[in-house]
C-alpha cells in the first residue's frame, strides 16, 4: 500500500510542542523503510497516525485509497495491516500459538473458531505458524501461555502474528527491542522478506537501519533525513541534532 502524508502535524493535549510538525512524505507500495530518530522524536506517533490510532491536528494522510481518519475506512485499513507495537499487545492467558493466529481472526469460519477455542492452531495456518516460529526461534514455546514467556519471546510472537495475517502493510515499532543480536537479525530478515508488502520499521539500531534501502529520520517531529544510505556522518547529525529539517 502506498502511504502519503501531506503537511501532517499532530499534538497531544498535555504537550506544548507538537509530536509531528508539518510532515510530508510518500512511501511507495512495497517499499521498505526504516524510521530513525532520537527518543521522543515522533516515530511512534507517525506510525500511529498511519494506523489511524492518532488523528493529525492538520494535514492529510492516505494509505492506499484509505483515509485513516475516516471511521468507515479504518476497519479495512486495520485488516490490511500487520502491527508490532512497542511492548506488544498480546492477550494474556492465551498460548503463544493462539496469539500468533489472532491477526487472522477476520478470516475464520466456525471450524477455525472451534480449533482456537480448543487451544489449537487451525489446520490451514499450522505449516506457516510452524515455519515462522522456527525462523524466530520460538517453536518450543508455542504452547506456552504468553505471560510465561520472556519479553523477547513475546516480541517474536507479536512478529509472527503480524506477518501471518499476510498484510499489505507492516508497521513495526522497535520490533527488535529486547532481542539478542541473533534473534534480532532473524526478526529483521522476516520483515525484509515481506516482498510486495509495504514495511515501515522504527528502530534505534543503526545496524538494522543500514539493511534497509531507505531511511527516514525524525527530529523534534520533523523529517531531518530521507535517503537511501546512512553514513556515519548522517547518523551523527541525526543524533546530534545538527541535521537541517527538510
Ligand atoms: N499519548 C501521549 N500523550 C502525550 N504526549 C505524547 C503521547 N505519545 C507521545 N507523546 C509525546 O510525543 C512526542 C513523540 O513521542 P513518540 O512516542 O512518537 O516518540 P518516539 O520517537 O517514538 O520515541 P521513542 O524512540 O522513545 O519510542 C514525545 O514528546 C512524547 O512525549
From TrEMBL:
Keywords: ATP-binding, Nucleotide-binding. Residues 3-245 form the ABC transporter domain. GO terms for molecular function: ATP binding; ATP hydrolysis activity; transmembrane transporter activity. GO terms for cellular component: plasma membrane. Pfam families: ABC_tran. This is ABC transporter domain-containing protein. The lineage of its organism: Bacteria, Bacillati, Actinomycetota, Actinomycetes, Kitasatosporales.
Amino acid at each position: 500500500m502506498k502511504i502519503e502524508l501531506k503537511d501532517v502535524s499532530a499534538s497531544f493535549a498535555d504537550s506544548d510542542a507538537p509530536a509531528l510538525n508539518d510532515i510530508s512524505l510518500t512511501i511507495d507500495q512495497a517499499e521498505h523503510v526504516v524510521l530513525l530518530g532520537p527518543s521522543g522524536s515522533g516515530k511512534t506517533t507517525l506510525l500511529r497516525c498511519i494506523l489511524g490510532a492518532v488523528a493529525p491536528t492538520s494535514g492529510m494522510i492516505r494509505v492506499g485509497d484509505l483515509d485513516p481518519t475516516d471511521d468507515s475506512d479504518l476497519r479495512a485499513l486495520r485488516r490490511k495491516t500487520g502491527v508490532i507495537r512497542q511492548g506488544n499487545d498480546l492477550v494474556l492467558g492465551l498460548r503463544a500459538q493462539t496469539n500468533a493466529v489472532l491477526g487472522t481472526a477476520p478470516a475464520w469460519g466456525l471450524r477455525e473458531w472451534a480449533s482456537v477455542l480448543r487451544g489449537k492452531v487451525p489446520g490451514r495456518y499450522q505449516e506457516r505458524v510452524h515455519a515462522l516460529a522456527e525462523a524466530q526461534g520460538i517453536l518450543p514455546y508455542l504452547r506456552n501461555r504468553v505471560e510465561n514467556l520472556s519479553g523477547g519471546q513475546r516480541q517474536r510472537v507479536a512478529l509472527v502474528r503480524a506477518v501471518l495475517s499476510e498484510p499489505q502493510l507492516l508497521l513495526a515499532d522497535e520490533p527488535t527491542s529486547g532481542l539478542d543480536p541473533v534473534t534480532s537479525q532473524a526478526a529483521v530478515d522476516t520483515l525484509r522478506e515481506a516482498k510486495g508488502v509495504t514495511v515501515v520499521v522504527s528502530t534505534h539500531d543503526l545496524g538494522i537501519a543500514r539493511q534497509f534501502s531507505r531511511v527516514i529520520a525524525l527530529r523534534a517531529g520533523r523529517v531531518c533525513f530521507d535517503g537511501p544510505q546512512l553514513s556515519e556522518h548522517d547518523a551523527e547529525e541525526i543524533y546530534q541534532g545538527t541535521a537541517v529539517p527538510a
